[in-house]
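Dear all,

This email documents one entry for the complex benchmark we are building for the journal club exercise. For each entry we list the sequence lines for every component of the assembly. Then comes the predicted three-dimensional structure of the complex as a token string, followed by one or two observations. Please use this as the template for your own entries, and keep the labels exactly as they appear.
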Amino acid sequence: MQSLHLRNDTLLEIATFLVRRWSEKHKMTVGIADQQEIQTKLKENKIIMFPLDRFYGIDFQKYRQFRTALWYESMRLKYSSKILSNDHAFGFLLNTLETRRIESLGRKEWRGMDEEIIFNYGFAWLYRPLLNSLYGKSRIVEGFSQYFLLGDIKGEITPSSFEKIKKAIEVADEAVNQAVNNNYGTDWLEVKVSEIIKILEIDPLLTIPISIPKISSGIAISDNDFIKTIGKITKFRESDFGELDPKRITEGKSVFEEFKVLLQETKKNENRGLSTESIGISIPSSTNVDETRIYDEDLISNLKAKFKEWKTGWKEQHVIAGDEFDEEAYMEGHKSFLTDQKISIKTKIVILLDHSSSIANEELQYKKATLALCEVLSFLKIKFTVYAFNTEQKQVTCWLVKPENVKWNNVAAKRLAQIKANGGTPLAEVYSIMFPGLRSKKPDIFLTLTDGEPSDPDAVRSMVTSFKLLGIRMVAIGVGPDTTAATIIANNLKHLGYESTLAVSRLNDIPNRVLNVLGRS
Amino acid sequence: MLAESLYIDWNNSFEVLNKAYDAGLFVLIIGPKGTGKTTLVREFAAKTNRKLESVNFSLRTRESHLVGAKTLEGGAIGFEEGILVKSMKEGDILYLDEINAAEADVLLRLDEALDDRRQLVLKESGGELIQASKGWFVIATINPLTHVGTKELPPQILSRFPIRIRLEYPPEEIELQIVKKYISGSHDKELLQAIKLANILRQAASVEELYYSPSLRETIAFGKMLDSDVRPRHAAEIIFANIYSQWGNVEYQKVNDIITSMFGN
């Protein structure tokens, strides 16, 4: 059995991409949090999944369930106007009906999901609770849901309850069909839920316990057993899905390629040598963060347009001897030939972002500007690493936002978004935490963005010297509220031994300034 | 004889072009690549029975390409007219493709010819004054700014083209009709899937989640592949997914996964 830990960031990157395309909402974010249920928040444009290892079976099967669950949530986002909580009967029943409705609508477009949907039902069948293990009226509600979605019930239920269930399902089937055929939405279906509740004779606010399977996760069942289960489900859904091959569904070849990429990425990014944690650098771990709020699309596209010339890698220049003769330049007595010169920015750069409390007022703008910088660096294919620091409970933390070997993506943006501006500017301490790592990686430029004087100037001076001895060019950018303040900060920084210091008073100028530093190098 | 028209005028661009032509107003077509801008202009020239001169701009397009350059033949210095001068003299249609990829000095020269006097002083050829013949008509296109290698067009140039046509990707149904003009088999269902896929990728590229946005050329290629009996899933992979592998495995896989959820295996 595989026991690989899939890296959450690659997983999230692919998941976010898929959800945005499936739901056609490009501001959606996906997070992973340690919780019991998958949550989709329509208003916040957010899906919160539970970790992969909470799903059932071997790693590949877990991934398939994760992916199908994502698809269902995407369809909910696209087609549902409300998602109620599953913890009371009314919400639970509405969500059950909605599951079938959005599935039918989604399948019209995403025909390749058929096998995965059946696969998912197979696992649902195995891990849904036995009805006799449930107490009170919640049993009939679970029974309804099983019979409606999976075509059968697990365990025992009284004949009279079973009759009610069957009657309720007739109403439910009819309602969902009508909704799908006539394009009725969630609100229309909601009215039908009351009818079903009457037939089942339950209280709409009846508490429904979250179903936790009796079998602990991780136990693999035999392939044959599983194929049998899938066979049962395909039979039940044959009228909708047509004939499907249970064996093929069990194998899931089409999704395997995707899973293989995840495995490869995991292997590729496995840490060699010391882990970042062991040298005192932390990685912001929360994935339940909305990074879209720190994206300033206008700023990013402006910068890209401005620096796109760098991307072509060529710049036209007048020279004494070259590829093309320029008559005009000759007549006017300038250098008369034109030639294209290669400009390349092979520079390896490390950026440290100050997150002390003084930027707290403008935290959002500061993050937007620094994120835009990262987007442009990545657009220009510059090798860069991003660190940030803040202080919490008198303890300074150095955060790794983007490692050198990983591409800039929304996961890195999530990390940046969650670092809170707090505390002072103990720059020397941060430098000393970063020193061992940078000694081995040896970037060309180490750029510090700070908004104030460090609390430990003498120590900073000696750390800056140590970095310079490694051959690293030390650059500091002073960020101030206005030109005067910024210039004062930059001037003070100059005394700390940095090779160059710059002042920025408008946060949106940060990317420009940094790129110009690179252009000159 | 004219070949059967391949252009479907789904947003009444011909009408706008005709009216602009009658009024002597120059036209700017704005839209992403592969939306049929060039086909539209070619078709317009053919329909109105006019000669079409085209320039495809890039960073390397020089003033001399437009205006002309001095030549040395048999010891005598001559002047070979560029496409701008030629089209002005003949009163042809001049098509300036991707004008926003041009360098500033080239644009400056264009500006001179495009202003209301429609004339150009040829300092390259003894200061000769070129006056545009009647019927000289200029159509330019620009790609949206996000396109690599493009820049904002200066306002004075923009104002020379007071008629602006926006050409987006056509609606799915229209794209299907366009693709069908290029193929022989009937695969409507699969073609619609591919068009849907192309639109999804275009959308993702427009918010910069992907580095590349497929054009109409790709959906047409998809249809042609189906004509040659390639399975839809496979065709989608080779036309729409493989291109993304140049940006790494993950980029490729993202797109391939969308294809999987659309076409299955």
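Observations: The CA atoms of residues 43 and 82 of chain A lie 9 Å apart. Residues 1-5, 214-218 of chain A have pLDDT under 50 and may be disordered.
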